[in-house]
Amino acid sequence: MRIIIAIASVLLTFSINADEPPRLNEVKLIDLSHTYDDKTLFWPTSPIKFEHPELSYGPSGNGYFYSAYTFATAEHGGTHLDAPIHFFESGQTVDALDLNDLMLPVNVIDVTDKTTANRDYLLQVSDIEAFEKEYGKIEKGTAVLLRTGWSKHWPDAKAYMGDDTPGDTSKLSFPSFGVEAAKLLVARGIKLLGIDTASTDGGKSTTFDVHVVISSANIPAIENMNNLEALPQQGAYIMALPMKIGDGSGAPVRVVGMIKK
């Protein structure tokens, strides 16, 4: 019941290009996260992946079934949130993020045509200008998601990352945000950035300029998103609630898209 009330509260608070936001019974929920399992993709230098060993599974001996597991994972793998402290020393940690900045109306910029032709394509200022010409200026306090179409490659590491050599990042290749485009989005006052690839910087980046730009503005980001093709370019909402890791630089996140039925 509390979850329903929380979602309803979000829907009554935010709106993009609509006289009023959708009512709860008019909303379709879209899962925008990949499942965590033994196929989950991590950055090539990650010391661990997702581990989920069994503690118990079967009859308890007291008349009931019982199962339990442990799990361990790096913060930055699978569908996860980067907290600003990831690339900004005085940035917010995961547990310090304002919930209001994680439940937002969303703009989805689609560059799948560009990435089909160039797997290292980076979002340009001109792409944002073209989006705004069609949909209006990106509003302060909203989220921006970049749809590259890359989730179709998940969980094939070589297709998704461009290379599957453990510990080696020198041959990575995938699309993302360009640094000038990121600066413009920061200037627009967005609250959250997201993408369906492994990083908010392109695979060939060695300086992670986009990470620095958005983290320095205390803007969290979500990487390795899924199902972005299910969202309209405007008119949807997202709820992105990461695991509340104390002093965390990142955390697994379940992202839910909400659109009118």
Question: Mind explaining what this structure looks like?
Answer:
- Strands 4-10-9-7-5-11-12 form a 7-stranded mixed barrel.
- It starts with a helix and ends with a strand.
- Strand 9, helix 6 (209-216) and strand 10 form a beta-alpha-beta unit.
- By secondary structure, the protein is an alpha/beta fold.
- The protein contains 6 helices and 12 strands.
- The model is unreliable at 1-19 (pLDDT under 50).
- The chain has a single domain, classed as Glucose Oxidase, domain 1, CATH 3.50.30.50.
Layout of SSEs?
Blueprint: H1 2-13, E1 27-31, E2 54-59, E3 65-69, E4 80-82, E5 103-110, H2 112-117, E6 122-123, H3 125-135, E7 143-147, H4 157-161, E8 176-177, H5 179-188, E9 192-195, H6 209-216, E10 221-223, E11 236-242, E12 250-260
Helix pairs in contact: 3-5, 5-6
Largest pleated sheet: 7 strands, mixed, barrel
Overall pLDDT score: 92
Question: Which structural class do you get from the secondary structure elements?
Answer: alpha/beta
Question: What is the domain total for the residues?
Answer: 1
Outline of the structure:
The chain is α/β, with parallel strands linked by helices and 261 residues long. The protein contains 6 helices and 12 strands. It has a single domain, classed as Putative cyclase (Glucose Oxidase, domain 1, 3-Layer(bba) Sandwich).
Salient structural properties:
alpha/beta; seven-stranded mixed beta barrel; disordered N terminus; 12 strands; two-stranded antiparallel sheet; Glucose Oxidase, domain 1; 261 residues
